[in-house]
Amino acid sequence: MARGRSNTVFSAGFFADEGWDFAVRLALGQCAAGGADAGEVLATVARIHGGKTWTPEWSARAEQLRGTAEQRARQGDERGAAAAFLRAAGYGALALDGLTGEEDSEQLTAAFRAHRASWERFVDCSAGRHERVEVPYEDTTLPGWLLRPDTSGTPRPTLVMTNGSDGAITSLWGSGAAAALERGWNAFVYDGPGQQSLLFERGVGFRHDWEAVLTPVVDALVARDDVDADRLTAYGISQAGYWLPRALAFEHRFVAAVADPGVVDVSTAWTERLPASMVTMLEQGDREKFNRNMRLPLLIPSIARTLRFRARPFQRDDWFDTFTEARRYRLTPELADAIRTPLMVTDPEDEQFWPGQAQQLADLVPGSHHVRFLAAEGANMHCQPMARLLTHERMFAWLDEQLATSGS
């Protein structure tokens, strides 16, 4: 999920830093699915004083939960162990958030591996319900997990979930995966290019043409007996609100899909704070002058960290190329015209990152289901972080209607 700035005035939050404040809201939103516990989150927040204590405190909380989980596993309490490992993984992801803008790749990789180890132990403690699935992709594989409600092998509707720019796998658990399992569905989660293990361990960056990613995922799933190939649905959160519609222009095997929220042009989150003169430099290809002008904001440590964090997955050599690459992440009218899959577009009030773009996407895709989420419902801000139950109620009600209409 994206992290950064806002164009709106927020109510008093947990931190003055809007990025950290939003991260806490995301964590609290995971509580409904067991991905966090409110008391643990708030107790950890109370011990954080300044950015330098963010990672140590979340790491300590994650380590405490890992110890608890291992003890329960030794005692044969697999269910209790799984619950603790899941929360440990979530808190480990929060610890990682404090490092993603840093240049120390060894520390970053170590923190990622600690987080991912807890997730893997959660999978191990599922009594066989959850399975690892390696998705063939170009000359390598994408790590994926098929999360199932039981081990019966029954063919089930399956929600294929694509994460945002920096979201951890654990965030998808509380963003729809657990809700899918509760309804008797499977959920499939994975790391794509530029995400998590592919970025931190393999150095593989983003790509704008996500159909090259999602089609291999679908190919791997439809070959399985426990996946009903006629009842596949898709979900994309945060930046995947662009990636998923882009892929749907080419991949037509989904019965329905949800963009949470709708994103038409990823690059506006990069360019809207640039002076008009620097946007002109990009458009005119003036690399030298653009890179020279970028030196000034990089002198401010907080801005420099945010820019490094956001630039890392694009894997470009300089700022001109990074901003230029981000401008490729656009859904054109021609691509939108090629979408055949029924599409639900969420549109939260106070959207921080791509304001107004959900409506734009809904307008581009005729017949799309445009759903507003309001501050009065407690469902404002990017991806409705503290209103996930409401999101899932609306989302799955609509997906169920699409499955019924499709005759599946």
What is the helix content? 40-55%
Report low-confidence residues grouped into runs of 5 or more. Answer: 1-10
* Form type: globular
How far apart are the first and last residues' alpha carbons, in Å? 32 Å
What is the succession of H and E elements? Answer: HHHHHEEEHEHHEHEHHHHHHEHEH
* Helix count, DSSP H or I runs of 4 or more residues: 17
Which sequence of strands runs across the widest sheet? 1-2-4-3-5-6-7-8
Binned strand content: 5-15%
Radius of gyration: 20 Å
Structural class, please? alpha/beta
Q: What is the typical, i.e. mean, pLDDT? A: 94
Tally of extended strands?
A: 8
Major sheet details: 8 strands, mixed
